Each structure stands twice: as C-alpha cells, then as structure tokens.
Amino acid sequence: MKMSPLHQEFVLHFGEMGSRWGINRTVGQIYALLFLSADPLNAEQITEALGISRSNTSMGLKELQAWRLVRMKHVPGDRKDHFTTPDDLWEIVRILIDERKKREIDPTLSKLRALEMQGPAGDDYSEARISELREMIEMMTEFYDEMSRLETERLVKLMTYGSRIAGLIDRVGSYVPSPGKQ
Fold first, then answer.
1. Which of these, 101, 136, 162, 180, is most buried using a 10 Å CB contact count?
2. Structural domain of residue 60, as residue ranges?
3. Quick check: 23 pLDDT over 70?
C-alpha cells in the first residue's frame, strides 16, 4: 500500500503525538493509517504501509481494540481480518474521553475517597486539599456524565453556544433581583 504525502505526514504526526497521549508511536501510526483509509485494511497491509513488524502490528491492533477505537470488519471474499475506525468523529471522541476517564479519572477518584475514609490524620491542610480535589473531580465527572447522555446534534449545538452561555452566566451572576421579586 502506497501512502500519499498527506497520508504520510498525518500518520507520522499521530505517531509523534501518541507518546504524548500515553500510547506508543506505532499504535498512533496504526490508528492514523486506519482513520484515513477509505477501506478496511488487513494486518499485512498495515505492516507493509508502515514498515513495521507483523508482531508490532498485531500488538498495536489489540491495544486499539481494547480502547474500542478499531473494529474488525469482514470483507466479502477475503478470509483475513480487516480493521477500520468508527466513521462518526463524535463517537471516536466519546470513546476516547470514556476510556481515559476509566483509566485515569476513576482510579484517582477512588483513591481520594479511600483517603478520606481513613478518617482524620492530623494534617488538616492536606485533608482539606484532598477533599477539595475529590469534590472538583466529582463535579467534573457529573458534568461529563450529563454531556455524554446528550445526542450528538444537541451536544454540537451546546458547544457552538459555548461563549454565549459563558456570557449568560456572567449576566445572571451579576443580576440582583428587586426586593420582593425572588
């Protein structure tokens, strides 16, 4: 499989960014290749296009499947497994956020709760900071849960109104009701 210069640049960039996102370069490149591919690709095609070993391809595909970012797709007349990414960009973003929440936010929240359950440790400042952090993460998690339940169209609409909503909050926050009108 021959990649266009546009394809190559995108794949290389995703590989570089992968390490910043907590995945290795090869996994990022595999995902980028599949993301831009109009047709599902089999492992041999991925291996050839990226110039990586078959075992790297296999491990990368398994990791991407564990993240739910890559799916197997049957190609009629071909017995090999083919792989593709979800077509809906919003679905991809939702999966990424959900998976990162499971791997990073949820364990941290559990640890903060466990630390609070231990009871007073005689370090009021640290205890208060832990409690404050837990409360903030819980608030963000609740907000995420609400947003994740919105249909894509409503979420997009909400996001496009972002700065207007912030302005509205500012106006409501400065509103002082007249006596007797509460």
1. 101
2. 5-84
3. yes
Instruction: State how far the Cα of 100 lies from the Cα of 132, in Å rounded to an integer.
Output: 22
* Ordered alpha helix ranges (H), 24-123: 25-36, 43-50, 54-66, 89-100, 106-117
Residue 148 pLDDT greater than 80, yes or no: yes
Total domains in the chain come to 2
Do 23 and 63 contact (CB within 8 A), yes or no?
Answer: yes
- pLDDT confidence bin for 10, thresholds 50/70/90: very high
Query: What is the structure's pLDDT at 178?
Result: 62
| In a shared domain, residues 101 and 78 | no
**Does the pLDDT of residue 39 top 80, yes or no?**
yes
94 and 62, same structural domain? no
User: Within this chain, do residues 21 and 58 fall inside the same structural domain, yes or no?
Assistant: yes
CA atoms of 121 and 115, how far apart (whole Å): 10
Does the residue 65 lie in any domain?
yes
Task: Print burial letters for 80-103: b (CB count within 10 Å at least 16), e (below 16).
Answer: eebbbbbeeeeebebbeeeeebee
Same domain, yes or no: 101 and 39: no
CA distance 20 to 9: 17
Query: pLDDT tens across 40-50, in order?
Result: 999 999 999 99
- Residue whose entry in the numeric block shows the structure tokens 């993301």: 35
Question: To the nearest whole number, what is the mean pLDDT of the chain?
Answer: 90
